[in-house]
Amino acid sequence: MLKKPFIQLKFPFPLVHIDTGHNFPETMIFRDQIVADLEVQLIVGLVQESINSGRSTEERGKNASRNALQTNTLLDTIDLHQFDACVGGARRDEEKARAKERFFSHRDEFGQWDPKNQRPELWNMFNGKHHQGEHFRVFPLSNWTEMDVWQYILQKTFRFRPLYFAHNAKSSVAMTPGCPYQSISI
Would you say residue 130 lies in a domain? Predict the structure, then answer.
C-alpha cells in the first residue's frame, strides 16, 4: 500500500524492520523480496542487540515473547538514524490502548505517547512540528479493522505470505517452492 503514491518514483525513505529473531524463514524471504522489488534501503534493528547491550531483558518461561522488547530496539533505531517519523501498520482493533491513538501520533524525547496531550486532527490536517529528539509514529491503517485489511487484499492484487493462514503455516515452503510470495486477485 505504501508503494502506491510512489509508483513511478524511487521510494523516498528506507524501510525499517525491528527483528525479534523469532521470525519464520518465509517471513524473512518475503521481506527481502519486497525490499528487492522496491529497490529500497532496509534498516534492521535487532532485539538481540538490545538484549546483549543490557537495554532489554529477555522474558523467560512457557509463554515468553520478544514482542514487548521491540520498543527499546525501535527507539534506538529511531535515534541512531534520526528519523522524524516512522510509518507503522498498527490498527485500533489490535489493542485497547490504540483506540485512542491518532493517525499522526506524537512521541516525546523518550519515545512515549501521551494520549491526553494529543494534537487535534481536524479535517485530516496534521501538525508535524516537533522538538529535537521527538518524533511521530504514523498509522495510516489506524481506523481499519482486520476485516478491512483482508477486504482490501481481495479487491486488489496484493502480495502476502500464505503463512497468514494457520492451516498452511507448517507447509508454506513446500506449498510454494522457489516462490517467496503469492498473489491473489478477484
Answer: no
